[in-house]
Amino acid sequence: MNVLDGNALAGDLAEIFAVDVTAARFVCAGCGHADAVATLQLFGHAPASVGRCPECTDVVIRLVRADDRVFLDMRGTVRLELPMSGS
Amino acid sequence: MARTAVSRRLNWRIGTVREVRQETPTIRTLVFDIPDWPGHAAGQHIDVRLTAPDGYQAQRSYSIGSAWTDGGTVELTVQKLDDGEVSPYLVDVVEPGDQIELRGPVGGWFVWRPAQTDPVLLIGGGSGVVPLMAMIRQRSLAKTMQPFRLIYSVRTPEDICYADELRRRVRDDGGLDVRYVYTRKTPQGWPDPPKRIDVATLNTYGWPPDFAADTFVCGPTSFVETAADILVALGHDPRRIRTERFGGK
Ligand SMILES: Cc1cc2nc3c(=O)[nH]c(=O)nc-3n(C[C@H](O)[C@H](O)[C@H](O)COP(=O)(O)OP(=O)(O)OC[C@H]3O[C@@H](n4cnc5c(N)ncnc54)[C@H](O)[C@@H]3O)c2cc1C
Ligand SMILES: [Zn+2]
Description:
The structure holds two protein chains of two kinds. Chain A is mainly beta. Chain A is built from one helix and eight strands. Chain B is globular, with a radius of gyration of 18 Å. In chain B, the strands form two sheets. Chain B has a six-stranded antiparallel beta sheet with strand order 4-3-6-1-2-5. Helices cover 20% and strands 31% of the residues of chain B. Chain B is built from five helices and eleven strands, in the order βββββαββαβαβαβαβ. Flavin-adenine dinucleotide sits between chains B (45, 60-63, 77-79, 81, 83-87, 127, 130, 220, 244, 246-248) and A (2, 4, 7-8).
C-alpha cells in the first residue's frame, strides 16, 4: 500500500477551499492529538482518500470525488483551525 | 452556464513543456510555460493529470524544483520508477511542445520562506531532494544568510540530481553545505561503506537540537519516517520537523 501524508491532499482541498487546508490544525476526535492536516497519514489515491491520525490511526478526514461533486467527511476532527492570509 | 464571480479556488490548467533536461540516467527536469502562473513558494507542489485515449486518468503530485521570481520558470524534476504508471511517461516520452494538464501551486505547510531566519536542516532521500532544492535556490535568490545544511541520500554517486549546481552553490552561496549518504555504492575513497541514513549520520552532520533549526524531511515514505524518528530520538523538537512523504514502501 502506498502511504502518503496530508500534503498530497493539498490539490483536492484547494479545489474546494480558498485557503490552504493542509496548513490548518486538526484536533483528533479519537485521541485529542492536534497537528497540521499535512501530517495526517494518507491512504488511497484520488478519487478516494482517507486521512488518519498519525497518533491513534483513527480516520480524521475522508474525501471522495464523484463526477460533479466532492464528499468531505470530517467527523474525525472536533475542530479545524485555519490560518488566514496575512497572519 | 453563467460564469461565476472570480474564484480563488483552484482549477486544472494546461502547461506547455518548454524544455527538458536530463539530470541523471533516470531523472529528468521538465521546464513549463504556464500562462498566468501566480508564483509559488519553495516546497510547494503541482498535481499532474494524464488522460489516456479511452478516458482513463492518472493523477500524481510533483514538487516544484525551481524557485520563483517574476518571469521565472516552473520546473518539475521526475525520477523514473520502471514499473510506474506515470513517471516513465514524464521521463522518457514527453517532449518540448507537449501540453500537460496540471493543478497548482498547492501545499502551504511543507514550505520555507526567506523570512524564516533560523538555521535550516534539509534531509532528502532520492527525488525527495526536489522541494529541498527549491528552498536552496530560493535562499540564493533572496540573498539571505540562514545557515543551510542538506543531507542527501542516494543509491550511487551517479544518482545525484543537480550535482554540478550543488557543488557550485556550496562554493559560491556562503553558509550552505551538503553531505551525501550512499546506500548502494560510494565514490572511491569514501570513508563509510554504503549504508542507509542512521543515527550517526544525523548526529554528526545534522544541526544540534539546541540550534532549533527549521527541519524539512522528504523522500520515500520509509525514508521520511526513519529520519524523522531519529531526529526526535536525538532530541529535536518534533514541532520544528516538517515531513513530506512521496510514497513507495
Ligand atoms: C507531495 C508529493 C510530491 C512529490 N514530488 C515528487 C517529485 O518532485 N519527483 C518525483 O519523482 N516524485 C515525486 N512524488 C512521487 C510521485 O507523485 C509519484 O508517486 C511517482 O512519480 C511514482 O508514480 P508512478 O505512477 O510512476 O508509479 P506508480 O505506478 O504509482 O507506482 C509504481 C510502484 O512504485 C512504488 N512507488 C510509488 N511511489 C514511489 C516513490 N515515491 N518511491 C518509491 N517507490 C514508489 C509503488 O508502490 C508501486 O509499487 C511526489 C509525491 C507527493 C505525494
Ligand atoms: Zn488520534
